[in-house]
C-alpha cells in the first residue's frame, strides 16, 4: 500500500464518519434476492457463484495423485486433462506457477502447505483449491484472471507479499469460502484497475462466505465493477483498515456478517476509486462502526441459507481454515 493510498484512505475515513453513524440499508432491485431465513446450519458444500455458469467440478472423479515436492506439484497441475492433486507436507515453489483447467488441488490433513510462490489460475476454467496453508508468497498466493468456475475453499493465508486471493481481468463465477487470513495485509482483491471496465463490466461475480479475517488489514474484499457480489456470514475480527469496499460501479450485498473491533466495516469508494453501491442487512456489530451503504444491487441467481449473524463468530472460528474438511 502506497503512502498516498494510506493518506487518502485516512482522509476518506474521516469524511465518512457522519455517514457511518447515519447509514441505512439501501433498497434492492427486484424481488428475487433471497430473504434471510431465521435459522440455518452452516454447510461446507459449494455455494454461490461457483455453482453457476455450468458449475465447478475441478478434477471431478479422476484418480487422485499425491505430490510431495514442489516440482511434482507444478508438473501435475500444469498437465492437460482432469487431475485431483493431493498435496502432502510443505511444498516450496517459486514465482507464480500456472494451474491448468479441470484441476482439484487439495491438501492432506492440516499441515499441507505451499510456500515461497503462488498459483496462477489464468485463462482457464473449472479449478478447485482447498485445504492448503499458503505462506511467504512472493507475489500473490492465488491469482485468478481471465478464468471462470473457480472455488477457493478452506485455505489459510499468512505472511505473504501481495494479495492472498486476487480475482481480476474478466474472471467470473467464483466462490471464496471458509478461508482464514491472519498476519497479512491485503486479503481479497476483486478487480485490479479502475481503467479495466471494458473487460470487467458484467463479470467479476463472486461469492465470499464464512471467511475469517483475523487481524488482517484491508480488501475483505475490495470490489471494482462486479455486480452482484455476495459477501455473507464472514467474521471480521480486529480488522485494522476496512472490511468491504464497493467501488467503480460495483454492486455488493453484505449480509449476515459479524464485525468485531472493526471501525470501518464497509463503505463506498476507496482511495482514488469512485463509489459503487452496497446493500447491507442483518449484520452484527461488536465494538465496531456502523458502515456506509447506498444504492441498489442486482438480484442473485442462486439461493443460500444465511446463518444468523450473531452465530457467525462461533461458526466461522470453528470451521474456517485448513484441517477442517
Please tag this protein with its features.
mainly beta, 27 strands, disordered N terminus, 33% strand, nine-stranded parallel β-sheet, ten-stranded parallel β-sheet, 325 residues
Strands, helices and their partners?
Elements lengths: L2 H20 L41 E4 L2 H8 L5 E5 L2 E3 L3 E3 L4 E5 L5 E3 L2 E5 L2 E6 L2 E3 L6 E4 L2 E6 L2 E3 L6 E4 L3 E6 L2 E3 L5 E3 L6 H4 L5 E4 L2 E3 L7 E3 L4 E4 L2 E3 L6 E4 L3 E5 L2 E3 L5 E3 L8 E5 L2 E3 L25 H8 L6
Distance between the termini: 34 Å
Q: Could you tell me the radius of gyration in angstroms?
A: 18 Å
Q: How much strand? A: 25-35%
Could you name the ranges where pLDDT drops below 50 across 5 or more consecutive residues?
1-8, 10-40
- Give the rounded overall mean pLDDT: 90
Largest sheet: 10 strands, parallel
The assigned structural class equals mainly beta
Question: Strand tally, please?
Answer: 27
Helix content: 10-25%
Q: What is the count of helical runs?
A: 4
Order of strands in the sheet with the most strands? 1-2-5-8-11-14-17-20-23-26
Amino acid at each position: 500500500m502506497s503512502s498516498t493510498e494510506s493518506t487518502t484512505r485516512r482522509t476518506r475515513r474521516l469524511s465518512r464518519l457522519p455517514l457511518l453513524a447515519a447509514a441505512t440499508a439501501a433498497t434492492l432491485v427486484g424481488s428475487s434476492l433471497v430473504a434471510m431465513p431465521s435459522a440455518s446450519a452452516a454447510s461446507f458444500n459449494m455455494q454461490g457463484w461457483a455453482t453457476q455458469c455450468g458449475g465447478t467440478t475441478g478434477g471431478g472423479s479422476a484418480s487422485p495423485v499425491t505430490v510431495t515436492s514442489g516440482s511434482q506439484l507444478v508438473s501435475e497441475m500444469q498437465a492437460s486433462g482432469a487431475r485431483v492433486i493431493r498435496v502432502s507436507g510443505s511444498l516450496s515453489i517459486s514465482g507464480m506457477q500456472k494451474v491448468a483447467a479441470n484441476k482439484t488441488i487439495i491438501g492432506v490433513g492440516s499441515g499441507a502447505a505451499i510456500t515461497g510462490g503462488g498459483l496462477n489460475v489464468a485463462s482457464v476454467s473449472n479449478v478447485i483449491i482447498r485445504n492448503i496453508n499458503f505462506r511467504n508468497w512472493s507475489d500473490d498466493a492465488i491469482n485468478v484472471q481471465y478464468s471462470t468456475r473457480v472455488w477457493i475453499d478452506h485455505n489459510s493465508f499468512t505472511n505473504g507479499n501481495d494479495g492472498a486471493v486476487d480475482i481480476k481481468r474478466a474472471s467470473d463465477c467464483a466462490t471464496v469460502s471458509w478461508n482464514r487470513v491472519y498476519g497479512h495485509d491485503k486479503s481479497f482483491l476483486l478487480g485490479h484497475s479502475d481503467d479495466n471496465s471494458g473487460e470487467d463490466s458484467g463479470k467479476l461475480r463472486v461469492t465470499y462466505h464464512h471467511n475469517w479475517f483475523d487481524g488482517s488489514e484491508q480488501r475483505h474484499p475490495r470490489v471494482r465493477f462486479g455486480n452482484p457480489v455476495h459477501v455473507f456470514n464472514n467474521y471480521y475480527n480486529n480488522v485494522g483498515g476496512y472490511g468491504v469496499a464497493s467501488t467503480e460501479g460495483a454492486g455488493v450485498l453484505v449480509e449476515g456478517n459479524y464485525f468485531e473491533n472493526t471501525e470501518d466495516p464497509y463503505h463506498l469508494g476507496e482511495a482514488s476509486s469512485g463509489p459503487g453501491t452496497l446493500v447491507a442487512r442483518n449484520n452484527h456489530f461488536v465494538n465496531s462502526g456502523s458502515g456506509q451503504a447506498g444504492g441498489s444491487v442486482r438480484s442473485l441467481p442462486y439461493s443460500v441459507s444465511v446463518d444468523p449473524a450473531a452465530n457467525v463468530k462461533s461458526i466461522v472460528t470453528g470451521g474456517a481454515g485448513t484441517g477442517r474438511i
